[in-house]
Amino acid sequence: MAPLTYLAMDDAAAPPPGRHGLLGLTYRQVTALIALVNLFVATYLHLWKIGKVGALACGAGGGCHVVQFSPWSWFLGVDVALIGAVGYTLILITALIGSTGGRDDARGPAVALAALIWPAFLFTLRLKYYEFLVLHSFCPWCAISAVSITTLSVLAWLELRRTRSAR
Fold first, then answer.
1. CA 103 – CA 98 distance, rounded (Å)
2. Phi, then psi, of 78 in degrees rounded to 5
3. Is the separation of the CB atoms in 46 and 85 below 8 Å?
4. Which end of the chain is more exposed for a tag (fewer CB within 10 A), N or C?
5. Residues 46-96: pLDDT tens digits?
6. How many Cα atoms are found within 13 Å in the side-chain-facing hemisphere of 29?
C-alpha cells in the first residue's frame, strides 16, 4: 500500500488560513444565517402579538401566551419581539456587509457584531429569568431565540479572536 502524500492545491483554490467557520461557511456567514432565521421568528411573534397573523403555534401548555402577554414582554413600551426583529436585522446586515467587498478579515465588522450581540445576550438572560423563575412558563419560540443569541455570542467571540490573529 502506497503512503498517503500531500497534494498541493492551487493557492487560489485553498481557503485562507483561519477563515474556516462552520459547515464550510465563515463565522460571519453563519451569523448572517442564524440572524435571518431569527428575524423571521421575531417578526412572526410580533405580528401575532399585534393581531396580523393567525394562531400562534406554540405547543401544549400555552407558555407562549403567558410569556407574550406578561409585563416583561415589553421594554420601555416596545414589544420585545419587535426589538428582537430590529436587532436581528442589524446583526444580519452587519454580518453581510462584513462578509463582502474584501472585508472578510476587517476588524470593524467583528467589533460591530460583538457590540450588537453581547448586549442582546444579556437582555435575553433577563428575559429567561422572568420566563422561567417568575412566570414558571416556557415559550419554544423564545427558546429558539435564546439558543441562537447564545450561539451568536460564541461566534462573535470567535470572530473577534480570528480577526485579532489576522492582523
1. 5
2. -115, 135
3. yes
4. N
5. 999 998 988 877 776 778 888 988 999 999 999 999 999 999 999 999 999
6. 12
